[in-house]
Amino acid sequence: MMIQMRLRTPDGQARLEIDDLATLKDLIQLIENKTALKSFTLKYGYPLRNLDTSPEAQRTAVVKDLQLRGETIVVAPIESPKPTPEPFTPKGIEPDETSLEWPEKGGFIILRVMPDDNSCMFTAFGGAIGLENPSQILRQQVAEYILEHPDKYNKAILGDEPTTYTARMKRMDTWGGAIELSILSDIYSIEISSIDVKSLRVDRFGEGKDNRVIILYSGIHYDRIAFCMDLSYPVEVDVTKWQTDDDEVLVKARQLAQQLQKVHYYTDTTDFVIKCEICNWIGQGTRDASKHERETKHSQFGEMKIE
Most exposed residue of 36, 113, 222, 294, measured as fewest CB within 10 angstroms of its CB? Predict the structure, then answer.
Protein backbone atom coordinates (compact mmCIF):
# COMPACT_ATOMS: atom_id res chain seq x y z
CA MET A 1 0.00 0.00 0.00
CA MET A 2 1.28 3.45 -0.90
CA ILE A 3 1.29 6.23 1.70
CA GLN A 4 1.65 9.95 1.13
CA MET A 5 3.49 12.56 3.17
CA ARG A 6 4.69 16.13 2.77
CA LEU A 7 8.23 17.47 2.82
CA ARG A 8 9.17 20.90 4.13
CA THR A 9 12.62 22.06 3.05
CA PRO A 10 14.48 25.39 2.93
CA ASP A 11 13.37 25.70 -0.71
CA GLY A 12 9.67 25.08 -0.13
CA GLN A 13 7.27 22.16 0.18
CA ALA A 14 6.77 18.98 -1.84
CA ARG A 15 4.73 15.78 -1.70
CA LEU A 16 6.07 12.26 -1.91
CA GLU A 17 4.58 8.78 -2.09
CA ILE A 18 6.22 5.56 -0.92
CA ASP A 19 5.26 1.93 -0.40
CA ASP A 20 4.52 1.30 3.28
CA LEU A 21 6.70 -1.83 3.16
CA ALA A 22 9.75 0.19 2.11
CA THR A 23 12.60 0.63 4.57
CA LEU A 24 13.64 3.88 6.19
CA LYS A 25 16.73 3.74 3.97
CA ASP A 26 14.46 3.73 0.91
CA LEU A 27 12.61 6.77 2.30
CA ILE A 28 15.86 8.66 2.89
CA GLN A 29 17.01 7.85 -0.65
CA LEU A 30 13.71 9.17 -2.00
CA ILE A 31 14.11 12.39 -0.02
CA GLU A 32 17.67 12.78 -1.33
CA ASN A 33 16.37 12.46 -4.87
CA LYS A 34 13.55 14.92 -4.24
CA THR A 35 15.67 17.59 -2.56
CA ALA A 36 19.18 17.06 -4.00
CA LEU A 37 20.42 17.18 -0.39
CA LYS A 38 22.93 14.66 0.87
CA SER A 39 23.30 15.52 4.56
CA PHE A 40 20.24 16.33 6.66
CA THR A 41 18.17 15.49 9.69
CA LEU A 42 14.46 14.67 9.62
CA LYS A 43 11.83 15.97 12.05
CA TYR A 44 8.09 15.36 12.23
CA GLY A 45 5.01 15.70 14.43
CA TYR A 46 3.78 18.38 16.79
CA PRO A 47 5.81 19.42 18.62
CA LEU A 48 8.63 18.58 16.23
CA ARG A 49 10.69 15.54 17.18
CA ASN A 50 13.67 13.85 15.54
CA LEU A 51 13.26 10.82 13.34
CA ASP A 52 15.97 8.26 14.10
CA THR A 53 18.02 7.98 10.90
CA SER A 54 20.95 6.04 12.33
CA PRO A 55 22.45 3.31 10.10
CA GLU A 56 20.80 0.63 12.26
CA ALA A 57 17.37 2.30 11.95
CA GLN A 58 17.80 2.66 8.19
CA ARG A 59 18.43 -1.09 7.87
CA THR A 60 15.64 -2.31 10.12
CA ALA A 61 12.84 0.29 10.27
CA VAL A 62 9.87 -0.13 7.92
CA VAL A 63 7.93 2.92 6.78
CA LYS A 64 4.52 1.59 7.84
CA ASP A 65 5.77 1.24 11.45
CA LEU A 66 6.97 4.85 11.61
CA GLN A 67 3.39 6.24 11.52
CA LEU A 68 4.23 8.92 8.99
CA ARG A 69 1.06 8.73 6.89
CA GLY A 70 -0.12 12.28 6.21
CA GLU A 71 2.73 13.76 8.26
CA THR A 72 4.89 16.73 7.27
CA ILE A 73 8.56 15.77 7.31
CA VAL A 74 10.87 18.72 7.97
CA VAL A 75 14.20 18.33 6.18
CA ALA A 76 16.97 20.29 7.93
CA PRO A 77 20.28 20.37 6.04
CA ILE A 78 23.29 19.78 8.27
CA GLU A 79 25.28 21.95 5.90
CA SER A 80 23.42 24.52 3.83
CA PRO A 81 23.96 23.79 0.13
CA LYS A 82 23.98 27.44 -0.86
CA PRO A 83 24.88 30.74 0.79
CA THR A 84 22.07 32.82 2.20
CA PRO A 85 22.03 36.54 2.97
CA GLU A 86 22.34 37.77 6.53
CA PRO A 87 18.91 38.18 8.15
CA PHE A 88 17.70 41.75 8.45
CA THR A 89 17.89 43.16 11.97
CA PRO A 90 16.94 46.60 13.24
CA LYS A 91 19.62 49.28 13.34
CA GLY A 92 21.63 49.10 16.54
CA ILE A 93 20.43 45.57 17.40
CA GLU A 94 22.80 42.61 17.07
CA PRO A 95 21.49 39.55 15.16
CA ASP A 96 21.91 37.27 18.19
CA GLU A 97 19.57 39.56 20.15
CA THR A 98 16.69 38.89 17.74
CA SER A 99 16.67 35.12 18.22
CA LEU A 100 16.62 32.68 21.10
CA GLU A 101 17.75 29.08 20.82
CA TRP A 102 15.14 26.48 21.74
CA PRO A 103 17.17 23.26 22.07
CA GLU A 104 14.21 21.09 23.09
CA LYS A 105 12.50 21.88 19.77
CA GLY A 106 15.67 21.80 17.69
CA GLY A 107 15.48 25.40 16.49
CA PHE A 108 15.02 29.05 17.40
CA ILE A 109 12.34 31.54 18.41
CA ILE A 110 13.06 34.52 16.19
CA LEU A 111 11.93 38.10 15.64
CA ARG A 112 10.79 38.70 12.06
CA VAL A 113 11.06 42.46 11.59
CA MET A 114 8.24 44.14 9.66
CA PRO A 115 8.68 47.14 7.34
CA ASP A 116 8.18 50.49 9.05
CA ASP A 117 5.43 51.57 6.64
CA ASN A 118 2.39 52.22 8.88
CA SER A 119 1.05 48.75 7.99
CA CYS A 120 3.36 46.74 10.29
CA MET A 121 0.53 45.28 12.39
CA PHE A 122 -1.36 44.02 9.34
CA THR A 123 1.83 42.63 7.80
CA ALA A 124 2.87 40.92 11.03
CA PHE A 125 -0.49 39.19 11.48
CA GLY A 126 -1.20 38.56 7.81
CA GLY A 127 2.13 36.88 7.25
CA ALA A 128 1.60 34.68 10.31
CA ILE A 129 -1.59 33.24 8.80
CA GLY A 130 -0.05 32.88 5.34
CA LEU A 131 -1.46 35.86 3.43
CA GLU A 132 0.67 37.48 0.74
CA ASN A 133 0.63 41.30 0.64
CA PRO A 134 -1.96 41.28 3.43
CA SER A 135 -2.33 44.95 4.35
CA GLN A 136 -4.98 45.98 1.83
CA ILE A 137 -6.94 42.73 2.25
CA LEU A 138 -7.04 42.95 6.04
CA ARG A 139 -7.86 46.66 6.10
CA GLN A 140 -10.87 46.04 3.87
CA GLN A 141 -12.02 43.11 6.00
CA VAL A 142 -11.71 45.14 9.21
CA ALA A 143 -13.69 48.01 7.69
CA GLU A 144 -16.48 45.71 6.54
CA TYR A 145 -16.63 44.00 9.93
CA ILE A 146 -17.00 47.32 11.77
CA LEU A 147 -19.84 48.45 9.53
CA GLU A 148 -21.54 45.06 9.89
CA HIS A 149 -21.45 45.30 13.71
CA PRO A 150 -22.68 48.84 14.52
CA ASP A 151 -23.80 47.91 18.05
CA LYS A 152 -20.34 46.69 18.98
CA TYR A 153 -18.27 49.24 17.08
CA ASN A 154 -19.88 52.63 17.51
CA LYS A 155 -18.55 56.16 17.93
CA ALA A 156 -18.02 55.67 21.66
CA ILE A 157 -15.69 52.72 21.01
CA LEU A 158 -13.99 54.00 17.86
CA GLY A 159 -13.62 57.65 18.88
CA ASP A 160 -15.15 58.63 15.55
CA GLU A 161 -18.14 57.85 13.38
CA PRO A 162 -17.81 54.29 11.98
CA THR A 163 -17.90 55.50 8.38
CA THR A 164 -15.16 58.03 9.08
CA TYR A 165 -13.09 55.53 11.05
CA THR A 166 -13.31 52.82 8.40
CA ALA A 167 -12.51 55.23 5.56
CA ARG A 168 -9.35 56.21 7.41
CA MET A 169 -8.46 52.61 8.27
CA LYS A 170 -8.59 51.59 4.61
CA ARG A 171 -5.81 54.06 3.85
CA MET A 172 -2.39 52.39 3.73
CA ASP A 173 -0.82 55.08 5.92
CA THR A 174 -3.08 54.51 8.95
CA TRP A 175 -1.84 52.53 11.93
CA GLY A 176 -3.73 49.51 13.22
CA GLY A 177 -3.99 48.64 16.91
CA ALA A 178 -6.00 46.85 19.57
CA ILE A 179 -9.39 47.33 17.89
CA GLU A 180 -8.12 45.85 14.64
CA LEU A 181 -6.41 42.94 16.42
CA SER A 182 -9.64 42.07 18.21
CA ILE A 183 -11.57 42.15 14.93
CA LEU A 184 -8.99 40.07 13.03
CA SER A 185 -9.09 37.49 15.81
CA ASP A 186 -12.85 37.18 15.28
CA ILE A 187 -12.65 37.09 11.50
CA TYR A 188 -9.97 34.36 11.40
CA SER A 189 -11.02 32.56 14.62
CA ILE A 190 -7.51 32.65 16.04
CA GLU A 191 -6.01 34.02 19.21
CA ILE A 192 -3.53 36.86 18.70
CA SER A 193 -1.04 37.13 21.56
CA SER A 194 0.67 40.53 21.56
CA ILE A 195 3.77 40.85 23.75
CA ASP A 196 4.71 44.36 24.89
CA VAL A 197 8.50 44.73 24.93
CA LYS A 198 8.62 47.45 27.59
CA SER A 199 6.37 45.74 30.16
CA LEU A 200 6.59 42.10 28.92
CA ARG A 201 2.79 42.01 29.26
CA VAL A 202 0.93 39.57 27.02
CA ASP A 203 -2.37 40.89 25.64
CA ARG A 204 -4.52 38.08 24.26
CA PHE A 205 -7.13 38.90 21.64
CA GLY A 206 -9.64 36.10 21.08
CA GLU A 207 -9.02 33.90 24.10
CA GLY A 208 -10.68 30.51 23.85
CA LYS A 209 -9.68 29.85 20.24
CA ASP A 210 -7.83 26.62 19.36
CA ASN A 211 -4.77 28.20 17.76
CA ARG A 212 -2.69 31.34 18.21
CA VAL A 213 -0.19 33.58 16.50
CA ILE A 214 2.28 35.77 18.38
CA ILE A 215 3.29 39.33 17.56
CA LEU A 216 5.61 41.74 19.34
CA TYR A 217 4.65 45.34 20.17
CA SER A 218 7.44 47.83 20.73
CA GLY A 219 5.45 51.00 21.40
CA ILE A 220 4.75 52.27 17.89
CA HIS A 221 5.61 49.18 15.86
CA TYR A 222 4.59 45.52 15.50
CA ASP A 223 6.81 42.60 14.48
CA ARG A 224 6.16 38.87 14.11
CA ILE A 225 7.37 36.05 16.35
CA ALA A 226 8.22 32.80 14.56
CA PHE A 227 9.95 29.47 15.06
CA CYS A 228 12.61 28.33 12.61
CA MET A 229 14.84 25.28 12.62
CA ASP A 230 17.85 27.15 11.27
CA LEU A 231 18.56 30.89 11.19
CA SER A 232 19.53 30.65 7.54
CA TYR A 233 16.11 29.31 6.52
CA PRO A 234 13.75 31.61 4.57
CA VAL A 235 10.62 32.95 6.26
CA GLU A 236 8.48 30.74 4.00
CA VAL A 237 9.25 27.70 6.20
CA ASP A 238 8.69 29.48 9.53
CA VAL A 239 6.25 28.05 12.05
CA THR A 240 3.94 30.93 13.02
CA LYS A 241 0.85 29.19 14.45
CA TRP A 242 0.63 27.19 17.67
CA GLN A 243 -2.08 25.49 19.69
CA THR A 244 -3.31 27.70 22.52
CA ASP A 245 -2.55 25.03 25.12
CA ASP A 246 1.14 25.33 24.20
CA ASP A 247 2.20 27.74 26.95
CA GLU A 248 5.87 26.91 26.42
CA VAL A 249 6.00 28.92 23.21
CA LEU A 250 4.67 31.98 25.05
CA VAL A 251 7.35 31.54 27.71
CA LYS A 252 10.04 31.44 25.01
CA ALA A 253 8.54 34.43 23.18
CA ARG A 254 8.55 36.47 26.40
CA GLN A 255 12.17 35.49 26.98
CA LEU A 256 12.99 36.83 23.52
CA ALA A 257 11.06 40.02 24.34
CA GLN A 258 13.08 40.36 27.54
CA GLN A 259 16.27 40.07 25.48
CA LEU A 260 15.03 42.91 23.29
CA GLN A 261 13.92 44.93 26.30
CA LYS A 262 17.50 44.90 27.63
CA VAL A 263 18.73 46.58 24.43
CA HIS A 264 15.82 49.06 24.55
CA TYR A 265 14.02 47.76 21.47
CA TYR A 266 10.92 49.79 22.30
CA THR A 267 9.59 53.33 22.29
CA ASP A 268 8.24 54.76 25.54
CA THR A 269 4.99 56.20 24.22
CA THR A 270 4.14 58.07 27.42
CA ASP A 271 6.71 60.80 26.91
CA PHE A 272 8.52 60.25 23.62
CA VAL A 273 8.83 63.19 21.24
CA ILE A 274 7.00 62.58 17.98
CA LYS A 275 7.10 64.39 14.66
CA CYS A 276 4.49 64.39 11.91
CA GLU A 277 6.26 63.44 8.71
CA ILE A 278 3.66 65.31 6.64
CA CYS A 279 3.64 68.79 8.21
CA ASN A 280 6.60 68.60 10.66
CA TRP A 281 4.32 69.13 13.69
CA ILE A 282 6.05 68.08 16.93
CA GLY A 283 4.27 66.69 19.99
CA GLN A 284 4.75 64.38 22.94
CA GLY A 285 3.39 60.88 23.36
CA THR A 286 0.58 58.96 21.70
CA ARG A 287 -2.13 61.20 23.17
CA ASP A 288 -0.79 64.23 21.31
CA ALA A 289 -0.33 62.13 18.17
CA SER A 290 -3.93 60.90 18.29
CA LYS A 291 -5.23 64.43 18.74
CA HIS A 292 -3.14 65.68 15.81
CA GLU A 293 -4.40 62.84 13.62
CA ARG A 294 -8.04 63.63 14.46
CA GLU A 295 -7.54 67.32 13.69
CA THR A 296 -5.47 67.03 10.50
CA LYS A 297 -6.03 63.43 9.28
CA HIS A 298 -2.23 63.10 9.17
CA SER A 299 -1.11 59.67 10.32
CA GLN A 300 2.57 59.37 9.42
CA PHE A 301 4.65 59.85 12.56
CA GLY A 302 8.18 59.15 13.63
CA GLU A 303 10.02 59.31 16.93
CA MET A 304 12.45 62.21 17.36
CA LYS A 305 15.68 61.27 19.06
CA ILE A 306 16.80 63.86 21.60
CA GLU A 307 20.55 63.86 22.02
Answer: 36
Asked if 215 contacts 195 with a C-beta cutoff of 8 angstroms, the reply is yes
Q: Which residues are catalytic?
A: 117, 120, 221, 298
Would you call 122 helix, strand, or coil by DSSP?
A: helix
Question: Which region holds residue 210: left if phi is over 0, alpha if psi is between -120 and 50, else beta?
Answer: alpha
Q: What letter does residue 85 receive in the DSSP assignment?
A: P
CA distance 72 to 14: 10
Contacts (Cβ under 8 Å, ≥6 apart) of 158: 146, 165, 179
> pLDDT by residue (tens digit) across 94-142?
555 799 999 888 899 999 999 988 899 999 999 999 998 899 999 999 9
Q: Where are the alpha helices (DSSP H) in the chain?
A: 24-35, 55-60, 120-128, 134-148, 155-158, 162-169, 178-188, 247-262, 285-296
Do 40 and 10 meet the contact criterion of CB atoms below 8 Å apart?
Answer: no
b/e map 220-240, b = 16+ CB within 10 Å: bbbbbbbbbbebebeeebbbb
pLDDT per residue as tens digits for the range 225-262 = 999 988 888 888 899 999 999 999 999 999 999 999 99
**Kind of pairing between the strands at 191-196 and 211-217:** parallel
